[in-house]
Amino acid sequence: MKHLRLSPRWAPYALLAPFLLLFLVFGLFPLAFSLYLSFQSWEPTSGLAAMHYVGLDNFAFALRDEWFWKSLANTGWLALASGLPQHLVAIPLASFLHLGFKRWRNAVVGAYFLPYITSSVAIAILFSSLFSTDYGLINLLLALLREVPLLGALLPAQAVDWLNDPDALKPAISMIVFWRYVGFNVVLYLAALQTIPPDLYEAATMDGAGRLQQFFHITLPSIRPMIFFGVTLSVIGGLQLFEEPFILTGGKGGSDQAGMTAAVYLYRNAFDFNDFGAASAMSWLLFLVVALLTWLTNRAFRPRTR
Amino acid sequence: MRRQAQHMAPWAAYCLVGLGTLIMLAPFYFMFVFATHSRSEIFSLPPPMWFGDDLANNLAILTKRLPFWRNLGWSLYVGIASTLLTLLFCSMGGYAFAMFEFRFKKALFALVMGTMLLPSFMNMIPSFMIMDLLGWIDQPRALYIPGAASAFGIFLMRQFVGSAIPRELVEAARMDGCSELGIYARIVLPLLKPALGTLGLITFIASWNNFIGPLVVMRSPDMYTLPLALRSLQSPVDTEWGALMAGSAIATLPLIVLFVLCSKQLISGLTVGAVK
Protein backbone atom coordinates (compact mmCIF):
# COMPACT_ATOMS: atom_id res chain seq x y z
CA MET A 1 0.00 0.00 0.00
CA LYS A 2 2.82 2.36 0.84
CA HIS A 3 3.75 3.15 -2.76
CA LEU A 4 0.18 4.30 -3.40
CA ARG A 5 0.52 7.13 -0.90
CA LEU A 6 -0.21 10.56 -2.26
CA SER A 7 2.18 13.36 -1.44
CA PRO A 8 0.56 16.61 -0.28
CA ARG A 9 1.82 18.08 -3.54
CA TRP A 10 -0.31 15.82 -5.69
CA ALA A 11 -3.19 15.32 -3.33
CA PRO A 12 -5.26 18.32 -4.49
CA TYR A 13 -5.07 17.17 -8.09
CA ALA A 14 -6.13 13.67 -7.17
CA LEU A 15 -8.98 15.00 -5.02
CA LEU A 16 -10.21 17.31 -7.76
CA ALA A 17 -9.74 14.89 -10.65
CA PRO A 18 -13.17 13.18 -10.63
CA PHE A 19 -15.04 16.44 -10.33
CA LEU A 20 -12.98 18.21 -12.97
CA LEU A 21 -13.25 15.35 -15.41
CA LEU A 22 -17.05 15.40 -15.20
CA PHE A 23 -17.07 19.18 -15.28
CA LEU A 24 -15.05 19.22 -18.48
CA VAL A 25 -17.09 16.55 -20.23
CA PHE A 26 -20.59 17.56 -19.08
CA GLY A 27 -20.14 21.22 -18.17
CA LEU A 28 -17.63 22.99 -20.40
CA PHE A 29 -17.57 20.84 -23.50
CA PRO A 30 -21.33 21.10 -24.09
CA LEU A 31 -21.11 24.88 -23.96
CA ALA A 32 -18.34 24.99 -26.53
CA PHE A 33 -20.19 22.46 -28.60
CA SER A 34 -23.41 24.44 -28.53
CA LEU A 35 -21.53 27.51 -29.75
CA TYR A 36 -20.03 25.43 -32.58
CA LEU A 37 -23.44 24.03 -33.41
CA SER A 38 -24.97 27.47 -33.70
CA PHE A 39 -22.85 28.07 -36.81
CA GLN A 40 -23.80 24.77 -38.41
CA SER A 41 -26.75 23.58 -40.38
CA TRP A 42 -27.69 20.13 -39.18
CA GLU A 43 -30.51 17.72 -38.67
CA PRO A 44 -29.66 15.07 -36.10
CA THR A 45 -31.35 12.33 -38.12
CA SER A 46 -28.86 12.68 -40.98
CA GLY A 47 -25.74 11.86 -38.93
CA LEU A 48 -22.78 13.96 -37.85
CA ALA A 49 -21.25 14.02 -41.32
CA ALA A 50 -24.17 16.02 -42.70
CA MET A 51 -23.21 19.03 -40.60
CA HIS A 52 -22.03 22.04 -42.55
CA TYR A 53 -20.88 25.52 -41.69
CA VAL A 54 -23.41 28.24 -42.47
CA GLY A 55 -21.88 31.26 -40.75
CA LEU A 56 -24.41 33.49 -39.08
CA ASP A 57 -27.41 32.03 -40.92
CA ASN A 58 -28.93 30.48 -37.81
CA PHE A 59 -28.74 33.77 -35.94
CA ALA A 60 -30.21 35.63 -38.90
CA PHE A 61 -32.98 33.05 -39.09
CA ALA A 62 -33.76 33.39 -35.39
CA LEU A 63 -33.78 37.18 -35.53
CA ARG A 64 -36.15 37.17 -38.50
CA ASP A 65 -38.36 34.49 -36.97
CA GLU A 66 -41.68 35.94 -35.85
CA TRP A 67 -42.26 33.12 -33.38
CA PHE A 68 -38.89 33.63 -31.73
CA TRP A 69 -39.77 37.26 -31.04
CA LYS A 70 -43.19 36.23 -29.83
CA SER A 71 -41.63 33.68 -27.48
CA LEU A 72 -39.25 36.35 -26.17
CA ALA A 73 -42.14 38.74 -25.59
CA ASN A 74 -44.09 35.99 -23.81
CA THR A 75 -41.07 35.21 -21.64
CA GLY A 76 -40.65 38.85 -20.72
CA TRP A 77 -44.34 39.21 -19.90
CA LEU A 78 -44.33 36.08 -17.74
CA ALA A 79 -41.07 36.94 -15.99
CA LEU A 80 -42.40 40.36 -15.06
CA ALA A 81 -45.91 39.27 -14.10
CA SER A 82 -44.69 36.42 -11.93
CA GLY A 83 -41.45 37.98 -10.69
CA LEU A 84 -42.48 41.45 -9.58
CA PRO A 85 -45.40 40.38 -7.33
CA GLN A 86 -43.12 37.83 -5.66
CA HIS A 87 -41.01 40.63 -4.24
CA LEU A 88 -43.87 43.03 -3.61
CA VAL A 89 -45.47 40.37 -1.42
CA ALA A 90 -42.35 38.78 0.04
CA ILE A 91 -40.76 41.97 1.40
CA PRO A 92 -43.69 43.20 3.53
CA LEU A 93 -44.54 39.63 4.51
CA ALA A 94 -40.99 38.92 5.65
CA SER A 95 -40.76 42.15 7.63
CA PHE A 96 -44.08 41.44 9.29
CA LEU A 97 -42.97 37.90 10.16
CA HIS A 98 -39.72 39.33 11.44
CA LEU A 99 -41.38 41.82 13.80
CA GLY A 100 -44.38 39.85 15.02
CA PHE A 101 -45.33 36.21 14.73
CA LYS A 102 -42.67 34.81 17.05
CA ARG A 103 -44.41 31.57 17.82
CA TRP A 104 -45.77 30.46 14.49
CA ARG A 105 -43.05 31.96 12.35
CA ASN A 106 -41.32 28.73 11.35
CA ALA A 107 -44.57 26.98 10.51
CA VAL A 108 -45.72 29.91 8.38
CA VAL A 109 -42.37 30.18 6.62
CA GLY A 110 -42.47 26.44 6.02
CA ALA A 111 -45.93 26.65 4.44
CA TYR A 112 -44.80 29.40 2.08
CA PHE A 113 -41.57 27.61 1.26
CA LEU A 114 -43.02 24.15 0.59
CA PRO A 115 -44.07 24.79 -3.04
CA TYR A 116 -40.47 25.71 -3.85
CA ILE A 117 -39.18 22.20 -3.22
CA THR A 118 -42.08 20.34 -4.85
CA SER A 119 -41.88 18.88 -8.34
CA SER A 120 -42.86 21.49 -10.89
CA VAL A 121 -44.42 18.77 -13.03
CA ALA A 122 -46.69 17.53 -10.23
CA ILE A 123 -47.63 21.14 -9.52
CA ALA A 124 -48.34 21.98 -13.14
CA ILE A 125 -50.49 18.86 -13.46
CA LEU A 126 -52.37 19.71 -10.29
CA PHE A 127 -52.97 23.27 -11.40
CA SER A 128 -54.18 22.22 -14.82
CA SER A 129 -57.08 20.57 -13.01
CA LEU A 130 -57.59 23.52 -10.66
CA PHE A 131 -57.69 25.84 -13.67
CA SER A 132 -60.28 23.76 -15.52
CA THR A 133 -63.05 25.94 -16.97
CA ASP A 134 -66.29 24.39 -15.79
CA TYR A 135 -65.32 22.38 -12.74
CA GLY A 136 -62.02 23.91 -11.65
CA LEU A 137 -61.71 25.16 -8.09
CA ILE A 138 -60.26 28.46 -9.18
CA ASN A 139 -63.27 29.40 -11.28
CA LEU A 140 -65.50 28.15 -8.48
CA LEU A 141 -63.72 30.43 -6.03
CA LEU A 142 -64.07 33.33 -8.46
CA ALA A 143 -67.80 32.64 -8.73
CA LEU A 144 -68.11 32.79 -4.94
CA LEU A 145 -66.12 36.02 -4.75
CA ARG A 146 -68.26 37.54 -7.48
CA GLU A 147 -71.13 37.56 -4.99
CA VAL A 148 -69.15 39.88 -2.75
CA PRO A 149 -70.23 43.49 -3.40
CA LEU A 150 -67.56 45.86 -4.82
CA LEU A 151 -64.99 43.07 -5.18
CA GLY A 152 -67.32 41.24 -7.55
CA ALA A 153 -67.31 44.13 -10.00
CA LEU A 154 -63.55 43.74 -10.45
CA LEU A 155 -63.72 40.06 -11.32
CA PRO A 156 -64.45 38.56 -14.75
CA ALA A 157 -68.20 38.11 -15.28
CA GLN A 158 -67.98 34.51 -16.53
CA ALA A 159 -65.95 31.41 -15.89
CA VAL A 160 -62.50 31.93 -17.39
CA ASP A 161 -61.14 29.41 -19.87
CA TRP A 162 -57.69 29.63 -18.25
CA LEU A 163 -55.85 27.09 -20.35
CA ASN A 164 -57.38 27.70 -23.78
CA ASP A 165 -57.98 31.42 -23.90
CA PRO A 166 -54.70 33.02 -25.02
CA ASP A 167 -55.37 36.05 -22.82
CA ALA A 168 -55.94 33.95 -19.70
CA LEU A 169 -53.11 31.44 -20.16
CA LYS A 170 -50.32 33.85 -19.26
CA PRO A 171 -51.97 35.03 -16.01
CA ALA A 172 -52.59 31.37 -15.11
CA ILE A 173 -48.91 30.49 -15.62
CA SER A 174 -47.82 33.59 -13.69
CA MET A 175 -50.01 32.63 -10.75
CA ILE A 176 -48.42 29.20 -10.54
CA VAL A 177 -44.90 30.60 -10.77
CA PHE A 178 -45.72 33.23 -8.16
CA TRP A 179 -47.15 30.57 -5.85
CA ARG A 180 -44.06 28.44 -6.30
CA TYR A 181 -41.36 31.03 -5.65
CA VAL A 182 -42.82 33.60 -3.27
CA GLY A 183 -41.78 31.56 -0.22
CA PHE A 184 -38.19 31.30 -1.38
CA ASN A 185 -38.04 35.09 -1.49
CA VAL A 186 -39.61 35.33 1.98
CA VAL A 187 -36.79 33.14 3.29
CA LEU A 188 -34.17 35.31 1.59
CA TYR A 189 -35.62 38.51 3.04
CA LEU A 190 -36.02 37.02 6.50
CA ALA A 191 -32.33 36.12 6.44
CA ALA A 192 -31.48 39.69 5.46
CA LEU A 193 -33.76 41.21 8.10
CA GLN A 194 -32.06 39.23 10.84
CA THR A 195 -28.83 41.08 10.15
CA ILE A 196 -30.32 44.51 10.93
CA PRO A 197 -29.33 45.63 14.45
CA PRO A 198 -32.48 46.12 16.61
CA ASP A 199 -30.98 49.31 18.10
CA LEU A 200 -31.68 51.03 14.80
CA TYR A 201 -35.39 50.52 15.26
CA GLU A 202 -35.23 51.47 18.95
CA ALA A 203 -33.47 54.71 18.10
CA ALA A 204 -36.01 55.42 15.38
CA THR A 205 -38.90 54.80 17.77
CA MET A 206 -37.33 57.20 20.29
CA ASP A 207 -37.14 59.81 17.57
CA GLY A 208 -40.85 59.30 16.94
CA ALA A 209 -40.69 57.43 13.63
CA GLY A 210 -43.79 55.33 12.90
CA ARG A 211 -43.82 51.76 11.63
CA LEU A 212 -44.15 52.83 8.01
CA GLN A 213 -41.37 55.38 8.27
CA GLN A 214 -39.14 52.74 9.83
CA PHE A 215 -39.98 50.36 7.00
CA PHE A 216 -39.04 52.88 4.32
CA HIS A 217 -36.02 54.42 6.03
CA ILE A 218 -34.45 51.48 7.85
CA THR A 219 -35.76 48.17 6.56
CA LEU A 220 -35.73 48.78 2.83
CA PRO A 221 -32.28 50.38 2.63
CA SER A 222 -30.79 47.65 4.84
CA ILE A 223 -32.07 44.79 2.73
CA ARG A 224 -31.24 46.46 -0.57
CA PRO A 225 -28.38 44.03 -1.34
CA MET A 226 -30.77 41.12 -0.77
CA ILE A 227 -33.38 42.73 -3.00
CA PHE A 228 -30.72 42.91 -5.66
CA PHE A 229 -29.85 39.26 -5.15
CA GLY A 230 -33.50 38.15 -5.14
CA VAL A 231 -34.45 40.20 -8.18
CA THR A 232 -31.42 38.86 -10.07
CA LEU A 233 -32.48 35.29 -9.29
CA SER A 234 -36.04 36.10 -10.42
CA VAL A 235 -34.78 37.59 -13.68
CA ILE A 236 -32.56 34.60 -14.43
CA GLY A 237 -35.22 32.10 -13.38
CA GLY A 238 -38.07 33.92 -15.13
CA LEU A 239 -36.25 34.03 -18.45
CA GLN A 240 -35.65 30.28 -18.25
CA LEU A 241 -39.27 29.43 -17.59
CA PHE A 242 -39.90 26.04 -19.14
CA GLU A 243 -41.64 23.36 -17.11
CA GLU A 244 -44.86 25.12 -16.12
CA PRO A 245 -45.76 26.40 -19.61
CA PHE A 246 -44.52 23.16 -21.17
CA ILE A 247 -46.83 20.98 -19.03
CA LEU A 248 -49.80 23.34 -19.08
CA THR A 249 -49.77 23.60 -22.88
CA GLY A 250 -49.00 19.95 -23.55
CA GLY A 251 -45.53 20.91 -24.83
CA LYS A 252 -46.92 22.90 -27.76
CA GLY A 253 -47.09 26.47 -26.49
CA GLY A 254 -50.85 26.77 -26.13
CA SER A 255 -53.44 28.40 -28.33
CA ASP A 256 -52.01 31.29 -30.30
CA GLN A 257 -48.62 30.32 -28.76
CA ALA A 258 -49.54 32.44 -25.77
CA GLY A 259 -47.64 30.13 -23.42
CA MET A 260 -44.65 29.64 -25.70
CA THR A 261 -41.66 30.82 -23.70
CA ALA A 262 -38.24 31.16 -25.31
CA ALA A 263 -37.03 27.98 -23.57
CA VAL A 264 -40.08 26.03 -24.79
CA TYR A 265 -39.60 27.34 -28.33
CA LEU A 266 -35.93 26.40 -28.20
CA TYR A 267 -36.86 22.88 -27.13
CA ARG A 268 -39.42 22.61 -29.92
CA ASN A 269 -36.94 23.80 -32.53
CA ALA A 270 -34.49 21.14 -31.46
CA PHE A 271 -36.67 18.16 -30.67
CA ASP A 272 -39.93 18.77 -32.58
CA PHE A 273 -38.57 20.50 -35.70
CA ASN A 274 -35.12 18.81 -35.62
CA ASP A 275 -33.28 22.07 -36.24
CA PHE A 276 -30.40 21.86 -33.78
CA GLY A 277 -28.45 24.69 -35.37
CA ALA A 278 -31.23 27.25 -35.06
CA ALA A 279 -32.06 26.06 -31.56
CA SER A 280 -28.43 26.48 -30.47
CA ALA A 281 -28.31 29.96 -31.97
CA MET A 282 -31.49 30.81 -30.07
CA SER A 283 -30.03 29.54 -26.82
CA TRP A 284 -27.08 31.92 -27.23
CA LEU A 285 -29.37 34.82 -28.13
CA LEU A 286 -31.45 34.06 -25.08
CA PHE A 287 -28.29 33.93 -22.99
CA LEU A 288 -27.39 37.42 -24.26
CA VAL A 289 -30.80 38.66 -23.12
CA VAL A 290 -30.31 37.08 -19.68
CA ALA A 291 -26.83 38.59 -19.37
CA LEU A 292 -28.05 42.02 -20.48
CA LEU A 293 -30.95 42.04 -18.04
CA THR A 294 -28.74 40.83 -15.18
CA TRP A 295 -26.36 43.66 -15.95
CA LEU A 296 -29.22 46.18 -16.00
CA THR A 297 -30.51 44.88 -12.64
CA ASN A 298 -27.00 45.24 -11.29
CA ARG A 299 -26.88 48.85 -12.45
CA ALA A 300 -30.29 49.65 -11.03
CA PHE A 301 -29.29 48.45 -7.58
CA ARG A 302 -25.74 49.80 -7.50
CA PRO A 303 -25.30 51.99 -4.41
CA ARG A 304 -25.70 55.60 -5.48
CA THR A 305 -22.78 57.91 -4.86
CA ARG A 306 -23.89 61.15 -3.31
CA MET B 1 -59.31 57.01 15.87
CA ARG B 2 -55.66 56.88 15.05
CA ARG B 3 -54.91 54.66 18.01
CA GLN B 4 -57.69 52.33 16.98
CA ALA B 5 -56.25 52.08 13.49
CA GLN B 6 -52.89 51.11 14.91
CA HIS B 7 -54.52 48.36 16.93
CA MET B 8 -56.41 47.13 13.92
CA ALA B 9 -53.42 46.99 11.63
CA PRO B 10 -51.66 43.98 13.19
CA TRP B 11 -54.89 42.00 13.26
CA ALA B 12 -55.54 42.67 9.62
CA ALA B 13 -51.98 41.63 8.89
CA TYR B 14 -52.31 38.43 10.91
CA CYS B 15 -55.46 37.56 9.01
CA LEU B 16 -53.79 38.25 5.66
CA VAL B 17 -50.79 36.10 6.54
CA GLY B 18 -53.09 33.34 7.74
CA LEU B 19 -55.14 33.50 4.56
CA GLY B 20 -51.92 33.42 2.56
CA THR B 21 -50.78 30.33 4.44
CA LEU B 22 -54.03 28.61 3.55
CA ILE B 23 -53.63 29.57 -0.10
CA MET B 24 -50.10 28.15 -0.11
CA LEU B 25 -51.21 24.85 1.42
CA ALA B 26 -54.60 24.39 -0.27
CA PRO B 27 -53.25 23.03 -3.59
CA PHE B 28 -51.39 20.29 -1.70
CA TYR B 29 -54.55 19.42 0.19
CA PHE B 30 -56.56 19.13 -3.00
CA MET B 31 -53.81 17.08 -4.66
CA PHE B 32 -54.21 14.45 -1.94
CA VAL B 33 -58.01 14.70 -1.88
CA PHE B 34 -58.28 14.34 -5.66
CA ALA B 35 -55.94 11.35 -5.53
CA THR B 36 -58.73 9.47 -3.75
CA HIS B 37 -61.50 10.31 -6.21
CA SER B 38 -62.48 9.12 -9.65
CA ARG B 39 -62.24 11.36 -12.66
CA SER B 40 -65.96 12.08 -12.77
CA GLU B 41 -66.02 13.00 -9.08
CA ILE B 42 -63.11 15.42 -9.47
CA PHE B 43 -64.97 17.16 -12.26
CA SER B 44 -68.30 17.54 -10.57
CA LEU B 45 -69.88 20.55 -8.94
CA PRO B 46 -68.92 21.21 -6.25
CA PRO B 47 -65.58 19.35 -6.46
CA PRO B 48 -64.78 16.95 -3.61
CA MET B 49 -63.53 18.65 -0.47
CA TRP B 50 -62.82 15.52 1.53
CA PHE B 51 -61.06 12.20 0.90
CA GLY B 52 -62.92 9.55 -1.09
CA ASP B 53 -62.32 5.85 -1.58
CA ASP B 54 -61.00 5.57 -5.13
CA LEU B 55 -57.29 5.56 -4.32
CA ALA B 56 -56.87 1.84 -5.06
CA ASN B 57 -58.74 2.23 -8.33
CA ASN B 58 -56.60 5.23 -9.32
CA LEU B 59 -53.45 3.28 -8.56
CA ALA B 60 -54.76 0.41 -10.67
CA ILE B 61 -55.26 2.77 -13.62
CA LEU B 62 -51.83 4.23 -13.02
CA THR B 63 -50.10 0.85 -13.07
CA LYS B 64 -52.09 -0.27 -16.10
CA ARG B 65 -51.16 2.77 -18.18
CA LEU B 66 -47.57 3.08 -17.00
CA PRO B 67 -44.81 0.91 -15.59
CA PHE B 68 -45.42 3.12 -12.58
CA TRP B 69 -43.48 1.20 -9.91
CA ARG B 70 -40.54 0.89 -12.28
CA ASN B 71 -40.69 4.66 -12.87
CA LEU B 72 -40.77 5.22 -9.14
CA GLY B 73 -37.83 2.82 -8.78
CA TRP B 74 -35.78 4.71 -11.38
CA SER B 75 -36.51 7.99 -9.62
CA LEU B 76 -35.23 6.52 -6.36
CA TYR B 77 -32.23 4.87 -8.01
CA VAL B 78 -31.17 7.99 -9.90
CA GLY B 79 -31.80 10.17 -6.83
CA ILE B 80 -29.66 7.99 -4.55
CA ALA B 81 -26.88 7.47 -7.10
CA SER B 82 -26.62 11.15 -7.93
CA THR B 83 -26.66 12.06 -4.24
CA LEU B 84 -23.84 9.65 -3.37
CA LEU B 85 -21.69 10.65 -6.35
CA THR B 86 -22.24 14.35 -5.77
CA LEU B 87 -21.38 14.06 -2.09
CA LEU B 88 -18.20 12.12 -2.83
CA PHE B 89 -16.88 14.25 -5.69
CA CYS B 90 -17.92 17.60 -4.26
CA SER B 91 -16.53 16.92 -0.79
CA MET B 92 -13.21 15.84 -2.34
CA GLY B 93 -13.12 18.86 -4.62
CA GLY B 94 -14.33 21.31 -2.00
CA TYR B 95 -11.67 20.06 0.41
CA ALA B 96 -9.01 20.51 -2.26
CA PHE B 97 -10.16 24.05 -3.03
CA ALA B 98 -10.34 25.03 0.64
CA MET B 99 -7.18 23.48 2.08
CA PHE B 100 -4.56 23.17 -0.63
CA GLU B 101 -2.56 25.60 -2.69
CA PHE B 102 -1.99 24.66 -6.32
CA ARG B 103 -1.52 26.31 -9.68
CA PHE B 104 -4.53 27.94 -11.33
CA LYS B 105 -6.61 27.32 -8.19
CA LYS B 106 -8.31 30.72 -8.27
CA ALA B 107 -8.93 30.66 -12.01
CA LEU B 108 -10.29 27.14 -11.88
CA PHE B 109 -12.65 27.95 -9.04
CA ALA B 110 -13.85 31.07 -10.83
CA LEU B 111 -14.48 29.03 -13.97
CA VAL B 112 -16.55 26.45 -12.08
CA MET B 113 -18.54 29.18 -10.31
CA GLY B 114 -19.03 31.02 -13.59
CA THR B 115 -20.96 28.10 -15.04
CA MET B 116 -23.49 28.45 -12.22
CA LEU B 117 -24.56 31.70 -13.86
CA LEU B 118 -25.27 30.07 -17.19
CA PRO B 119 -28.90 29.15 -17.82
CA SER B 120 -29.63 25.43 -17.82
CA PHE B 121 -31.37 25.47 -21.20
CA MET B 122 -28.02 26.11 -22.89
CA ASN B 123 -27.00 22.56 -22.10
CA MET B 124 -30.17 20.94 -23.35
CA ILE B 125 -29.11 20.27 -26.94
CA PRO B 126 -25.40 19.54 -26.52
CA SER B 127 -26.05 17.23 -23.60
CA PHE B 128 -28.51 15.26 -25.70
CA MET B 129 -25.84 14.94 -28.39
CA ILE B 130 -23.15 13.88 -25.94
CA MET B 131 -25.44 11.25 -24.44
CA ASP B 132 -26.22 10.09 -27.96
CA LEU B 133 -22.52 9.85 -28.82
CA LEU B 134 -21.77 7.96 -25.61
CA GLY B 135 -24.70 5.62 -26.20
CA TRP B 136 -26.28 6.75 -22.93
CA ILE B 137 -29.74 7.50 -24.30
CA ASP B 138 -32.23 5.63 -22.10
CA GLN B 139 -29.52 4.95 -19.51
CA PRO B 140 -30.00 6.19 -15.93
CA ARG B 141 -26.29 7.05 -15.79
CA ALA B 142 -27.02 9.84 -18.27
CA LEU B 143 -28.90 11.46 -15.38
CA TYR B 144 -26.72 10.88 -12.34
CA ILE B 145 -23.17 11.11 -13.71
CA PRO B 146 -23.33 14.63 -15.26
CA GLY B 147 -25.19 15.90 -12.21
CA ALA B 148 -22.31 14.93 -9.95
CA ALA B 149 -20.24 17.82 -11.36
CA SER B 150 -22.31 20.25 -9.32
CA ALA B 151 -20.79 23.71 -9.10
CA PHE B 152 -23.12 24.54 -6.24
CA GLY B 153 -21.91 21.43 -4.40
CA ILE B 154 -18.27 22.47 -4.74
CA PHE B 155 -19.13 25.95 -3.53
CA LEU B 156 -21.04 24.68 -0.50
CA MET B 157 -18.31 22.20 0.44
CA ARG B 158 -15.51 24.72 0.07
CA GLN B 159 -17.36 27.19 2.29
CA PHE B 160 -17.97 24.55 4.90
CA VAL B 161 -14.45 23.07 4.93
CA GLY B 162 -13.08 26.59 5.33
CA SER B 163 -15.23 27.30 8.36
CA ALA B 164 -15.48 23.88 10.05
CA ILE B 165 -12.09 22.25 9.66
CA PRO B 166 -9.06 23.79 11.34
CA ARG B 167 -5.92 23.75 9.22
CA GLU B 168 -3.89 22.65 12.26
CA LEU B 169 -5.90 19.45 12.54
CA VAL B 170 -4.98 18.44 9.01
CA GLU B 171 -1.32 19.43 9.59
CA ALA B 172 -1.18 17.41 12.79
CA ALA B 173 -2.60 14.32 11.13
CA ARG B 174 -0.07 14.69 8.34
CA MET B 175 2.76 14.93 10.93
CA ASP B 176 1.48 11.80 12.59
CA GLY B 177 1.89 9.96 9.30
CA CYS B 178 -1.71 9.78 8.17
CA SER B 179 -1.94 9.46 4.38
CA GLU B 180 -3.66 12.17 2.35
CA LEU B 181 -6.56 9.92 1.51
CA GLY B 182 -6.72 8.87 5.16
CA ILE B 183 -6.98 12.51 6.21
CA TYR B 184 -9.85 13.01 3.79
CA ALA B 185 -11.70 9.86 4.82
CA ARG B 186 -11.05 9.89 8.57
CA ILE B 187 -10.92 13.56 9.46
CA VAL B 188 -12.52 15.66 6.77
CA LEU B 189 -15.54 13.52 5.93
CA PRO B 190 -16.75 13.03 9.53
CA LEU B 191 -16.43 16.75 10.25
CA LEU B 192 -18.35 17.54 7.07
CA LYS B 193 -21.40 15.53 8.13
CA PRO B 194 -23.83 18.45 8.57
CA ALA B 195 -22.84 19.94 5.22
CA LEU B 196 -23.07 16.53 3.56
CA GLY B 197 -26.58 16.20 4.95
CA THR B 198 -27.63 19.54 3.52
CA LEU B 199 -26.06 18.98 0.11
CA GLY B 200 -27.43 15.44 0.05
CA LEU B 201 -30.96 16.67 0.65
CA ILE B 202 -30.72 19.37 -1.99
CA THR B 203 -29.20 16.98 -4.52
CA PHE B 204 -31.78 14.29 -3.94
CA ILE B 205 -34.69 16.72 -4.23
CA ALA B 206 -33.27 18.30 -7.39
CA SER B 207 -32.78 14.87 -8.94
CA TRP B 208 -36.25 13.72 -7.88
CA ASN B 209 -37.83 16.80 -9.48
CA ASN B 210 -35.58 16.87 -12.55
CA PHE B 211 -37.73 17.10 -15.67
CA ILE B 212 -35.62 18.54 -18.49
CA GLY B 213 -32.82 15.99 -18.01
CA PRO B 214 -34.96 12.88 -18.49
CA LEU B 215 -37.13 14.66 -21.06
CA VAL B 216 -34.09 14.99 -23.27
CA VAL B 217 -32.38 11.62 -22.75
CA MET B 218 -35.10 9.12 -21.82
CA ARG B 219 -36.94 7.73 -24.81
CA SER B 220 -38.70 4.58 -23.63
CA PRO B 221 -41.50 4.74 -21.03
CA ASP B 222 -39.82 1.87 -19.20
CA MET B 223 -36.93 4.18 -18.35
CA TYR B 224 -38.94 7.27 -17.42
CA THR B 225 -38.52 8.82 -14.01
CA LEU B 226 -41.66 9.96 -12.20
CA PRO B 227 -42.07 13.52 -13.56
CA LEU B 228 -41.69 12.29 -17.12
CA ALA B 229 -44.00 9.34 -16.53
CA LEU B 230 -46.71 11.58 -15.08
CA ARG B 231 -46.40 13.99 -17.93
CA SER B 232 -46.82 11.16 -20.45
CA LEU B 233 -50.25 10.37 -18.92
CA GLN B 234 -51.53 13.78 -19.92
CA SER B 235 -53.40 13.52 -23.17
CA PRO B 236 -55.54 16.06 -24.97
CA VAL B 237 -58.40 13.55 -25.30
CA ASP B 238 -59.07 11.74 -22.04
CA THR B 239 -56.76 12.44 -19.17
CA GLU B 240 -57.18 10.11 -16.20
CA TRP B 241 -57.21 12.89 -13.63
CA GLY B 242 -57.68 10.67 -10.60
CA ALA B 243 -54.73 8.49 -11.52
CA LEU B 244 -52.65 11.50 -12.43
CA MET B 245 -53.37 13.07 -9.04
CA ALA B 246 -52.50 9.83 -7.25
CA GLY B 247 -49.20 9.72 -9.12
CA SER B 248 -48.48 13.38 -8.38
CA ALA B 249 -49.29 12.81 -4.72
CA ILE B 250 -46.88 9.87 -4.59
CA ALA B 251 -44.22 12.01 -6.26
CA THR B 252 -44.82 14.83 -3.78
CA LEU B 253 -45.23 12.95 -0.51
CA PRO B 254 -41.54 12.03 0.01
CA LEU B 255 -40.58 15.67 -0.50
CA ILE B 256 -43.11 16.85 2.08
CA VAL B 257 -41.82 14.28 4.58
CA LEU B 258 -38.20 15.28 3.93
CA PHE B 259 -39.15 18.91 4.29
CA VAL B 260 -41.01 18.45 7.56
CA LEU B 261 -38.08 16.48 8.99
CA CYS B 262 -35.25 18.72 7.81
CA SER B 263 -36.70 22.09 6.85
CA LYS B 264 -34.06 24.08 8.77
CA GLN B 265 -31.14 22.31 7.15
CA LEU B 266 -32.76 22.59 3.73
CA ILE B 267 -33.62 26.26 3.94
CA SER B 268 -30.21 27.23 5.24
CA GLY B 269 -28.53 25.21 2.50
CA LEU B 270 -30.64 26.60 -0.32
CA THR B 271 -30.07 30.16 0.73
CA VAL B 272 -26.33 29.78 1.35
CA GLY B 273 -24.42 32.43 -0.47
CA ALA B 274 -27.39 34.73 -0.21
CA VAL B 275 -26.31 35.97 3.20
CA LYS B 276 -22.90 37.46 3.52
CATH class of the domain at 52-118 and 163-301 in chain A: Mainly Alpha
* SSE run of chain B: HHHHHHHHHHHHHH
Query: Largest interface, with Cβ-Cβ < 8 Å?
Result: A-B, 94 and 96 residues
Largest sheet of chain A: 2 strands, antiparallel
Count of strand segments of chain A: 2
**CATH architectural designation of the domain at 66-232 in chain B:** Orthogonal Bundle
CATH superfamily of the domain at 52-118 and 163-301 in chain A: MetI-like
The helix-and-strand class of chain B reads mainly alpha
- Quick one: CATH superfamily of the domain at 66-232 in chain B? MetI-like
CATH architecture of the domain at 52-118 and 163-301 in chain A: Orthogonal Bundle
Instruction: Determine the number of helices of chain B (DSSP H or I, runs of at least 4 residues).
Output: 14
List the quaternary state of the chains: heterodimer
- Given as residue ranges, the uncertain stretches of chain B (5+ residues, pLDDT < 50) are 1-6
Comma- or semicolon-separated keywords:
heterodimer, A: two-stranded antiparallel ribbon, B: mainly alpha, globular, transport (chain A), Sugar ABC transporter permease (chain A)
How would you summarize this macromolecular structure in one to three sentences?
Chain A has 306 residues and is mainly alpha-helical.
What does this structure look like?
The complex is a heterodimer of chains A (306) and B (276). With 306 residues, chain A is mainly alpha-helical. Chain A has a domain at 52-118 and 163-301: MetI-like fold (Orthogonal Bundle), CATH 1.10.3720.10. In chain A, 70% of the residues lie in helices and 1% in strands. Chain A has helices at 11-37, 57-64, 66-99, 105-117, 120-130, 137-146, 151-154, 166-193, 198-206, 211-222, 224-239, 243-248, 262-272, 276-301, and strands at residues 40-41, 52-53. The longest helix of chain A is centred in the N-terminal third of the chain and has 34 residues, at 66-99. With 276 residues, chain B is mostly helical. Chain B has a domain at 66-232: MetI-like fold (Orthogonal Bundle), CATH 1.10.3720. Chain B has 14 helices and no strands. In chain B, α1 (2-34) packs across α14 (241-270) and α3 (55-65) crosses α14 (241-270). The two termini of chain B are 43 Å apart. Residues 1-6 of chain B have low confidence and may be disordered. The chains are: A mainly alpha (306), B mainly alpha (276). The interface between A and B is large, with 94 and 96 residues.
